[in-house]
Amino acid sequence: MREELNKSFQSLVSKLLGWMNSFVENIPNLILAMLVMLIAYFLAKYVSQLMMKLVGSRVKQKSVSNIIARLTTIMVVFLGLFLALGILNLSQTLTSLITGAGVLGLVIGLALQGTLSNTISGIVISFRDKIQIGHWVETNDFAGEIIDINLKNFTLKESDNNMVLIPNKTILETPMKNYSLTPYIRVDVSCGVGYESDLEFVQELTKKTLEQTFEKIDDMKPVEFFFTEFGDSSINFKCRFWIEGTKNVHKLNATNKAIIAIKKAFDEEGINIPFPIRTLQFNNQLSVTEINDDTSN
User: Fold this and answer.
1) Tens of pLDDT, residues 284-295
2) Which segments constitute the Mechanosensitive ion channel MscS domain (predicted)?
3) Are 247 and 187 in contact (CB under 8 A)?
4) How many Cα neighbours within 13 Å face the side chain of 210?
5) Of the candidate ranges 28-32, 174-178, 208-212, the one whose mean pLDDT is the lowest
6) CA separation, residue 196 to residues 209, 231, 239, 262, 296 (Å)
7) Which of 99, 178, 186, 190 is nearest to 144 (CA)?
């Protein structure tokens, strides 16, 4: 019994001595590995600040700048860790870490597929010059001003002050109309005049009224006038003109101003904007007989 205890004790002591000797022999490598990790730590902080400045100068969304800086920091720290493990001759541990990171990344990617897709889409959208905060856009049957672009949602503020949150993935996969990319907006106004009206005079008067109401942008964008159809009670027309503006409210204000000006001009010239009417025609003549009833008490 004592012999077995002595053997076990000697085995334990030999292992401890072996570990001690191995530790002493690897002290230079351990110091070098710690130095590498320390350098990686400070280098990661510097690279993070540098990425914040570089990305912040191009992307207005602070959340995007933060996530890119953090990802860069993690990559630098992991690089330092792999180098340190290699210095300590822990190649097997290094291989296991790489394999485990790959499997873990695959599992997380499958579990958070939608979230990661929105995150990546948010980063891609943030780097697009033609999509900026403050632009007035129309997408996914919603129209409004871009309020925020984060790593999850695309936020629009509609004209009625409602907020619309759209997933970034949907924005990236759906066509978008951006009214703010050009400084001009085309306004369409439709109306109708009575069949008795002088159509050439109506055309000339409408174009002259709009030219006097709105400042002309250039010769390449004149006021356009088109008669479109013979309606039930009027001859309908459409006029188009350009204004300076980047938002839907500018278009609404111009439409309102144009309708008031056209109505006032037509009233002054006695031009009729008819109500919808219906004429009934009877082929047979109806005779009306007047019956007088004399009553006596």
Assistant:
1) 665 655 555 555
2) 115-180
3) no
4) 26
5) 28-32
6) 21, 13, 20, 18, 55
7) 178
93: Cβ–Cβ under 8 A, 6 or more apart, which residues? Answer: 85
Q: Phi/psi of residue 176, each to 5°?
A: -135, 135
| Residues whose CB is less than 8 angstroms from the CB of residue 84 and which lie 6 or more positions away in sequence, other chains included | 33, 34, 36, 37, 40
Cα distance between residue 137 and residue 248, in whole Å = 9
Whether the pLDDT of residue 279 is over 80: the answer is no
Q: What domains are defined for the chain?
A: 2-111 (1.10.287), 132-178 (2.30.30.60), 184-268 (3.30.70.100)
Query: Which residues contact residue 178 at a Cβ distance below 8 angstroms, ignoring those fewer than 6 apart?
Result: 130, 131, 135, 136, 137
pTM for this prediction: 0.55
For residue 95, the number of C-alpha atoms closer than 13 Å in the C-beta half-sphere is 4
User: Which of 154, 153, 134, 130 has its CA nearest to residue 145?
Assistant: 134
Q: Is 200 helix (H, G, I), strand (E, B) or coil?
A: helix
Note the residue count of the chain: 297
Burial of 254 (0-12, 13-18, 19+ CB in 10 A): buried
- Which residues make beta-bridge pairs with 139? 142, 176
Tokens of 152: 């999850």
9 compared with 170, residue with greater pLDDT: 170
Encode pLDDT of 189-209 as tens digits: 999 999 999 999 999 999 999
Q: CA-based diameter of the chain, in Å?
A: 153
Which stretches of 27-61 are DSSP H helices? Answer: 27-56
pLDDT at 165: 93
Q: How confident is the model at residue 29 (pLDDT cuts 50, 70, 90)?
A: confident
Please tell me the distance from the alpha carbon of residue 77 to that of residue 79, in angstroms, as a whole number. 5
> Could you say which DSSP state residue 230 is in?
E
